[in-house]
Amino acid sequence: MKKTLLLKVDSQKLEMENIRLAVDLIKKGGLVAFPTETVYGLGADALNPKAVRSLFEAKKRPFDNPPIVHVGYVKDVCRLVKGVPPKAKRLMKSFWPGPLTLIFERSKIVPDVTVCGLGTIAVRMPRHNVALALIKESGCCIAAPSANLAGKPSPTSAKHVLYDLDGRIDAVLDAGPTSIGVESTVLDMTVDPPQVLRPGGTPYEALKRVLGRVELHPIAVAEKELAINEAHSPGMKHRHYAPDADVIVVEGELSAIVNKVKELAEFYMQKGSNVGVLATDETAGYYRADVVKSLGSRSDWRVIAKNLFRLLREFDLEGVDVIIAEGVPTDRLGLAVMNRLRKASGYNIVKAK
Ligand code: TXA
Ligand code: MG
Fold first, then answer.
1. For residues 183-195, b (16+ Cβ closer than 10 Å) or e, as one string?
2. Which domains does the chain have, with CATH numbers?
């Protein structure tokens, strides 16, 4: 067991004292969790193979699912990749710093373990003062998967990080809850048209406005588990975002969703299960269950995305056996929310009619 330091930092005032402690740890090959605008990441020096190996171990992450490498300057991308296609330059101008991860052919300086032996690398520049200060002060490119134990919902606060990783990492920089709440969009720039491998904080619609043609990989919008012949985004084949409770997602027209959620809640309560319902402000009042939580109003995607992972974790803390979750429409951030919910359920999706 390590002693995990809790380093508080105000992202506006940005006192450097705690950030410098974190910088020293990263430079020495240590593991530091830090906030980004999406979720907390678990950082290690991306060019230090030993540090990156310990990152996988701390998270219990399989060695075939590479992390995203975070940069503070566009010029650092050039060191990590073979070349930056013109379309990627346009995206970086429009969306960086921000929740967009781009996949490039990787350069030789990147250790094999950082990319799990792949010929490609995932890179992004986060839009968060603390993350950027950590990266720039350390002078490192920082490999950082989400700072949760593999398979669990991503952490949107330092408390979530410690719940999963206390004693397994060197420190966590705590700057309060993250603002977006779902991870970055992962876009493969090694194919043309570019392909969204994971929907996230940068909406598909916004990418199309800049690039014209962009494709969605079938698995990014999958409603059932697809056979993956070619592990295109390696992370696709692992179970993700899953609370301990079973999750059922109910999709369809809103009135049909409400009726089906009521029916399922009744069914599981009669069986003696401890039932949670993940609802929205417009519908929460209709349900009778052991725990009812609202993601927020259906008219505000940002609030829904921000609350998703926190509420999934809260259901576990309240000892719920089964979570019945309302589906939401899949435009804008809704696509990322539904991608996470469907995966969290292991594609246990009920179509309400
Ligand atoms: O918002 C985020 O992206 C957060 C914060 C911390 O930046 N990070 C994050 O990292 O979600 P992680 O490791 O949990 O997810 C990275 C995703 C995985 O689905 C992984 O399979 C994919 O990016 N990925 C990484 N390298 C790849 C590559 N070379 N080709 C395709 N997919 C890749
Ligand atoms: Mg993750």
1. bbbbbbbbeeebb
2. 5-221 (3.90.870.10), 246-351 (3.40.50.11030)
SS3 118: coil
Query: pTM for this one?
Result: 0.96
* Cβ atoms of residues 277 and 248 within 8 Å: no
What's the rounded Cα separation, in Å, for the pair 142 and 44? 5
- Per the structure block, which two tokens stand in for 78? 């050039």
What count of other Cβ atoms lies within 10 Å of the Cβ of residue 19? Answer: 23
**Which residue ranges have their beta carbon within 6 Å of ligand 1?**
36, 38-39, 41, 65-68, 99, 101, 103, 115, 118, 120-122, 126, 144-146, 183-184, 186, 197-198, 233-235
Bridge partners (DSSP) of residue 350 are 250
Residue 150 tokens read as: 């593999």
Distance of alpha carbon 67 from alpha carbon 196, whole angstroms: 17
**Within 10 Å of residue 299's Cβ, how many Cβ atoms?**
10
CA triplet 262, 265, 268: central angle to 5 degrees? Answer: 150
Report which bound ligand comes closest to the CA of 40: 1
* Each residue's pLDDT tens digit, 93-148: 999 999 999 999 999 999 999 999 999 999 999 999 999 999 999 999 999 999 99
268 Cβ neighbours under 8 A, 6+ residues apart: 275, 321, 322, 324
Ligand 1: residue of 59, 118, 186 to mutate (most ligand atoms within 8 A of CB) is 186
